[in-house]
Amino acid sequence: MVTLLLLVLAAVLTPTSSSAAGGTWWDPVARPEPDSQINVTGEPFKGTDSAGRVRGFVDAHNHIMSNEAFGGRLICGKAFSRKGVADALKDCPEHYPDGSLAVFDFITNGGDGRHDPDGWPTFADWPAHDSLTHQQNYYAWIERAWRGGQRVLVNDLVTNGVICSVYFFKDRGCDEMTSIRLQARLTYEMQDHVDAMYGGPGKGWFRIVTDSAQAREVIEQGKLAVVLGVETSEPFGCKMILDIAQCDRDDIDAGLDELYDLGVRSMFLCHKFDNALCGVRFDSGALGTAVNVGQFLSTGTFWRTEPCTGPQHDNPIGLAAAPAAEKHLPAGVEVPSYDADARCNVRGLTGLGEYAVRGMMQRGMMLEIDHMSVKAAGRVLDLFEAASYPGVLSSHSWMDLNWTERVYRLGGFTAQYMNGSEQFVTEAGRTERLRDAYGVGYGFGTDMNGVGGWPAPRGADAPNPVTYPFRSTDGGSVLDRQTTGQRTWDLNTDGAAHYGLVPDWIEDIRRVGGQHVVDDLFRGAESYLTTWGATERHRPAANLARDARATASSAEWNPFTSYAPARAVDGDRNTRWASDWTDPQWLRLDLGATHRVGRVTLDWERAYAGSYRVDVSADGTNWRTVWSTTTGDGGLDTAVFTPVEAREVRVVGLERGTGYGYSLHEVGVHAR
To answer: 222-241: per-residue pLDDT in tens?
Structure first.
């Protein structure tokens, strides 16, 4: 049996002319024959810059294994196959002979879905920038992106149980966590597949990493650090049916532990559909209608909207028809209409969602706020600010840009969706001032295999087209047009058809927007790892207010429960202090000794302060105001100020935000 296995491996890994005959570390000892070309010459850069920072691009949002999602037949083709490229890059069975049954193809791309199903070796019709159903992440194409300067890739394990259940073709069940486990396992198998070409375990360029130090080590060796994330609609089974959660805290703890053990270090808590954890940021147009239908099929309720309370807003839903999706609705059920001035999802972060957020913080995981409703994202940012927790990500332009500075202030990281170069440059310009102010790099999220669409060709006659061959950003490699089988792609005329064209797209950005935009992207890997490292190192600051002696101007009387001042410092978020229904009112905390104080957190009940201030005193007699606001809106507030020495802290409510009094679940006092 062992002899037979060795013979098979020898046949599969037959050396080719591209093998490392000269001993170059970046070329494999043996590459399968036949296979895709890489079309890059020159040694990939290693090491750090003069300041000790890693260099390179970061793709913060990709889906290498999503062909295994949605029932296994929505995305056709594989990222790798031990049987070779012909087996990996072939169409789904139902697409033969002419694409007549490529149902999802014509739903997403219009027309009749007809196409040449043959992949290897002709690739007449796919992969293409506007084909959402064919593999774009073949391992050799990712290898070309690595050779072109990419050093971090986040592989988001993704699926959607409702899409799986309604799609006509599938070859496995629709349980989301089962699919996530499979995709994680196959990512590790892809690492083994690459390692085998380079001579054994640990020798390949595709390295799955589970902490930021390991990622830095991999990048300094010149290799690609691969981070596992999760983007799914019902994590841990936390769906919602008729507003009733289908999971509990034990499910969340078990799910987070399992994902962490799989190597997952970042995740979304909601995606596309409202679930038991949070509400989502809507999709628009006909796609929005289709997703809203899916929301109903999943939860029994459609999206509900309300006027937004701040500058942030969710995407407009739109009223465009989606007949292919709407026919799945029960008889007599129709997608509702929505007021144009009600742009925000009524659903924010639920109690279970807050528990999950805190669970991620305890495990040092990074949280993606893309796809969260602004109400949910705002609460997450409140929680992170209250804890000074930096682990917040926006990886592919699904966050309202008005949140950007709060993300950077926390130490978080942002990336933009892989738009066409002109649009990418324009959007990058909107936040360039903030990147400069906070000294951070920028990322992109290709969302390849993510059913989103990618940059169309600008045309060979467009101004400043990509000219081949071109040099990588670091200057050490030369890239020519990419060839796989009998097909050669040119970004100018083909657009970003597959992952191997990511370096070409970056070169197009340089030609359209200038070197400074690409320089920001080249600093992206360092900024991503800085956020990750700070997240790992985070430790909760001591709460100096816990069980402090608390007094107040008043306390609301109730025959059934106590609203005494001490309830605001007892560590229980289910209790609270509540004042009389008049202005002004105050809550005073004696910390028991003099401490350095620089941050006060206030978790308001619905009865909040519209105008209030924070005072401190060293002796209980002489007070000074260190922070104040006249625009309080409730929720979780964090008052940050220049640290001072103080024994007592006083919160003074000047003007109530409601007709009730002032009510605080918890007050925290911290040194920083």
So the answer is: 999 999 999 999 999 999 99
Please count the other Cβ atoms lying within 10 Å of the Cβ belonging to residue 2.
6
Cβ proximity of 134 and 115 under 8 Å:
no
Q: Print burial letters for 221-251: b (CB count within 10 Å at least 16), e (below 16).
A: ebbbbbbbbbbbbbbbbbbbeeeebebeeeb
Which residues, in sequence order, are CB contacts of 362 under 8 Å at separation 6+?
none
- The distance between the two most distant Cα atoms of the chain, rounded to a whole number of Å, is 87
Say what the pLDDT of residue 110 is. 67
Q: Locate 567 and state its tokens.
A: 């309830």
Cα–Cα distance, 252 to 275 (Å, whole number): 13
* Amino acid of residue 13: L
> Going along 202-293, which residue ranges are E strands?
206-208, 224-232, 240-241, 244-245, 264-268
Q: Give the span between the Cα atoms of 139 and 193, in whole angstroms.
A: 9
Question: Is the model's pTM score more than 0.90?
Answer: yes
CA distance 638 to 384: 10
Helix pair 139-147, 176-197: axis angle to 10 deg: 60
* Residue at 265: amino acid letter: R
Cα–Cα separations (whole angstroms), residue 20 to 15, 80, 214, 477: 9, 21, 26, 17
The contacts found for 29-34 with CB under 8 angstroms, 24 or more apart, are 29/197, 29/198, 29/199, 30/197, 31/197, 32/84, 32/85, 32/197, 34/84, 34/85, 34/86, 34/121, 34/485
CA distance 193 to 190: 5
Quote the DSSP letter at residue 273: B
Residue type, 582: T
Nearest residue to 313 via CA among 269, 373, 272: 373
Residue 14's pLDDT is 35
The confidence score (pLDDT) of residue 100 equals 85
Are 347 and 373 in contact by the 8 Å Cβ rule? The answer is: yes
How do beta strands 663-670 and 585-604 pair? Answer: antiparallel
Show the DSSP H helices in 487-581 as ranges.
Answer: 491-494, 502-513, 515-522, 524-537
Residue 516's contacts (CB-CB under 8 Å, 6 or more residues apart) are none
The single-letter code of the amino acid at 174 is C
With beta carbons less than 8 A apart as the criterion, state whether 364 and 535 touch.
Answer: yes
Rounded CA gap, 11 and 49, in Å? 42
| Other CB atoms within 10 A of residue 471 CB | 13
Question: Contacts by 94-101 with C-beta closer than 8 Å and gap 24+?
Answer: 94/168, 94/169, 99/125, 101/168, 101/169
User: Which tokens is 229 given?
Assistant: 């994330």
Low-confidence ranges of the chain (pLDDT < 50): 1-21
Strand 392-394 and strand 366-368: the pairing is parallel
The candidate with the shortest Cα–Cα distance to 79, out of 189, 177, 197, is: 189
Tell which residue, 348, 353, 351, 350, has the closest CA to residue 367: 353
Q: Please report the pLDDT score of residue 9 as a whole number.
A: 32
Structure-block tokens of residue 465: 């087209």
Cβ neighbors of 178 (< 8 A, separation 6 or more) are 172
Beta-carbon contacts of 257 under 8 Å, excluding residues fewer than 6 positions away, are none
Check if the beta carbon of residue 346 is closer than 8 Å to that of residue 281. no
Residue 602 identity (one-letter amino acid)? L
36 token code pair: 């895709």
CB atoms within 10 A of CB 153: 26
Place of tokens 């309830």: 567
Which residues make beta-bridge pairs with 667? 602
57 Cα distance to chain centroid: 16
pLDDT of residue 12: 35
- Residue 171: per-residue pLDDT: 93
Beta bridge partners of 590: 549, 648
